[in-house]
Structure prediction request, 172 residues.
Amino acid sequence: MLETLLTRRSCRKFIDKAVEAEKKEKLLQAAQLGPTGRTIRPWEFVVIENKETLQKLGDCRKPNQPFLPETPLAIVVLANTQATDTWIEDAAIAAVIIQLEAEKLGLGSCWVQIRLRESNQGLSSEEHVRKLLGIPEHLAVLSIIAVGYPAGTKPAHTLAEVEQAKIHTETY
Ligand SMILES: Cc1cc2nc3c(=O)[nH]c(=O)nc-3n(C[C@H](O)[C@H](O)[C@H](O)COP(=O)(O)O)c2cc1C
Prediction:
């Protein structure tokens, strides 16, 4: 896992190649196998590959997220806010697990923040995505995970980034 964490970098440039069905399935399986508060599993996902929808999704943020229209696969991470008070944590864990599984499968990914952000048209990012995709009100839109085969590589993280000063032993 440490190796996966070191090599994973946010990817915002993808080659024009679809993510294979088996890999897509693994990403969505991984998303639902992480830890959750009280095993309530409040998440749902919208899988998008349609170019026209991806184009419209690009305006979900101000300034727009120019890589979204070029992303082969976008996974919108939703959570039922009425199901549990740990919906943010549960959905964030699922989103990160998608990113880590993507790395293991040779795919690149990037988190696009939706919660608490604004769209290009002055709506909340959440409302933009909700209207575009027909998402019901009880589901919050946490993020979109853009996934695809990376165009190019970025330097891996290194253990030098780990700050010993952030680790406290026994007491703060
Ligand atoms: C909560 C969260 C929100 C993020 N929001 C965005 C975003 O809206 N757009 C974007 O391009 N990257 C976004 N990122 C990716 C970060 O910019 C990126 O993870 C960070 O710069 C560290 O780089 P690395 O992922 O290559 O290690 C987000 C990441 C997280 C965890």
Notes: Helices lie at 2-7, 21-31, 51-57, 87-104, 125-133.
